Amino acid sequence: MWTILHKNRLNDFLNNHSELNNYDNEFILREMDQYYILPRLFASTYNSPYLGIHEDNTFNGETIDIEFSGKLRSYQQEGAEQLKLLWDYNGEVNGLVKAHPGLS
To answer: Strands, DSSP E only, in 1-104?
Structure first.
């Protein structure tokens, strides 16, 4: 499932969500002939008549159970704590996290 936005409606959408004006290069994942492909839960986070949902049933993911065994760097820890606060408050975290890897 993906959120889609018709290319002709990008400015209309940004006029309704001015907080995103400087981030269109961040949330547009792919450009198609007539549409932009956005993160899958974008439409539920940014309610707009200009956003649609595209369901792609060609791939059915499966749940896996994993455990992180590494150590976060200080700048990663701060981001992880903010995500945990969102999770604790909302019971979910929607969107993408853009973060630097922990390479030395």
So the answer is: 2-6, 30-31, 35-38, 51-54
